[in-house]
Each structure stands twice: as structure tokens, then as C-alpha cells.
Design a protein that fits this description.
five-stranded parallel sheet; alpha/beta; 219 residues
């Protein structure tokens, strides 16, 4: 891989730079585990949530569910209301890698499946999300990973050469989507593996590693 001329590095955000877990507030709101699992499997499902990442408003999303589950209205509205609790800390070692790459002059951008409003909230909680040259937010462009169109949109927006672009994402489907768009891509599992993957592409970030967690600022 050292023969590949990587000039652009693109980071995913959720579960790569910041932690995300809807169970964090809902373990308090719905203490019974079986009931909570039912709620996420049938009401506020992943498929429902991804449509907000695709650009659907929270107002519309909540109304759709409340129509079918009126007795769950409070819990449905709680998903957005308590969203900040779902992102309690950043992965400091990965953030350090990203900052080191930027400091060394690498062209760093971000590509994320994120609702527009919660992404702006995340930037306030985690100011390092404003450091890269730019970001494509799925909720803004109404496209979503792993659809090829969002990778093409990102490359066009930021002037990236797909064959010289390396993408980092925790989702195997999103990694494959990037490869289908002509990018190089690696799956993130932990910072040490990421460092090895970068090195395999001839990329050696400066050591900006910090403690293992960066807590969010209070909302």
C-alpha cells in the first residue's frame, strides 16, 4: 500500500471520534431492559433514526411515531430531548491522531451520517469537530452512507481525488461504500489498529494522543 499516493484523509465521526449510545439516557427513562429493547426494536428503531440523518425533521419523525404509539409519546420525544446524553465523550486517542494529521499538513475532512441540528450541537460539545478543513453532513445534503452519491458529493465539494483519498469508518458497509466510490478505506476498531492501517498507506501522524476520554462540555 505504500505505493498509493494518499493526499486526503476523511474521518467518520460517530464511534470513531465520539462515542454514541442511545441506551445511556434510556437506561434511566426505561429501566427495564426487556422493555427498553422492545422500544428500540419497535418504536425508535435504527431505521427510524437514520431518516433524521437523511434530512427528515425531528418534528415529522416524532409525529409519525406518536400517531402509531400515542402511549409512548414521552419516550419518543425523549430521544431528541436527551440526545446530548448519548454522546458523553470523545475518543481522545483518535482525536489526537486526527489533530496530528492536520498539524502535519495532511488534508483532513469529515464525512458523517448525522442529523443537521444534532451535528451543530455536537460541534458545540466537541470543538475539535470544527478543526478539519470541512465536513459533509448527511442531513444537510440529504444523502447517506453507504450510498455512493454521498462520497461523490464529498469528493466534489472538497476537491478530493478519489484514488488519493483514505476513508476511516467503523461500519463495514460504509467502508465498502467508499471503496465502491473509488476511495481507499479502512474499518476503525481501535486507535492502535488505525495507526497500523495509516502506516500501511505511508501515513504517520504526529503523536497528539491525550487521555482515553474527552468528556463533553455541559449543554
Amino acid at each position: 500500500m505504500n505505493s498509493v499516493d494518499i493526499r486526503h484523509i476523511v474521518f467518520d465521526i460517530g464511534k470513531v471520534l465520539i462515542h454514541y449510545d442511545p441506551n445511556l439516557p434510556f437506561s434511566r427513562l426505561i429501566p427495564d431492559e426487556s422493555e427498553r429493547n422492545w422500544f428500540f426494536a419497535n418504536v425508535c428503531t435504527s431505521d427510524w433514526n437514520i431518516e433524521q440523518d437523511r434530512g427528515r425533521s425531528w418534528q415529522e419523525a416524532e409525529a409519525l411515531l406518536i400517531r402509531d404509539y400515542p402511549d409512548r409519546a414521552d419516550h419518543i420525544r425523549a430521544f431528541r430531548r436527551h440526545w446530548h446524553e448519548m454522546v458523553p465523550h470523545a475518543y481522545a486517542e483518535t482525536v489526537g491522531i486526527m489533530e496530528g494529521l492536520s498539524a502535519d499538513g495532511w488534508d483532513v475532512t469529515m464525512l458523517t451520517n448525522f442529523a443537521s441540528d444534532t451535528f451543530r450541537e455536537a460541534q458545540k460539545l466537541y470543538p475539535f469537530l470544527t478543526l478539519p478543513r470541512g465536513v459533509t453532513v448527511s442531513g444537510d445534503v440529504r444523502l447517506i452512507k453507504p450510498d455512493r452519491a454521498i462520497y461523490q458529493t464529498h469528493a466534489r465539494t472538497f476537491g478530493l481525488d478519489p484514488g488519493a483519498t483514505l476513508f476511516i469508518d467503523d461500519s463495514p458497509a460504509n467502508v465498502e461504500g467508499a471503496r465502491a466510490a473509488g476511495w481507499h478505506a479502512v474499518q476503525f476498531t481501535d486507535p492502535d489498529k488505525l495507526k497500523r492501517d495509516l502506516a500501511a498507506y505511508g501515513v504517520q501522524p504526529s503523536d497528539h494522543a491525550a487521555p482515553s476520554l474527552i468528556a463533553a462540555d455541559a449543554p
